[in-house]
Amino acid sequence: MSRSAAALRADRSVAGVHPILAGLACRCPSCGKGALFRSYLKLNTRCPACDFDLAKADAGDGPAVFVILICGAVACFGLLFTEMTYHPPVWVELVIWFPAAALLCLAALPPFKGALLAAQFLNKASEVRPEDLRHGE
Ligand SMILES: [Zn+2]
Fold this sequence. Notes:
137 residues, elongated, binds zinc ion, mainly alpha
């Protein structure tokens, strides 16, 4: 990491709160205090604590991909562990691991979405606007 990138990241850490940790806690990446979500996965348009504009933040499908890969691996490991250790009937494993995988995914989605939104904030990622394209002319 270059020195300027480290300085940029230090500038973004307001009030001692790292934006990624604030995102994982579902808090505003700018101040670390205001709630990031107004409902399960719906973002607030502005931070209730610092009035930071959250309307343009969009993590897309990124959080779902990470959650599916990580939680799917955890659920598969659990399923294989119970199969190899206890040899339960298939219906018992289905009753245990399908709901466990679903609940794990549902629980992990908000923190992952918060962390990816915070990473966008940290790296100044945004959509390309028409004026950005005309700048090089
Ligand atoms: Zn805030």
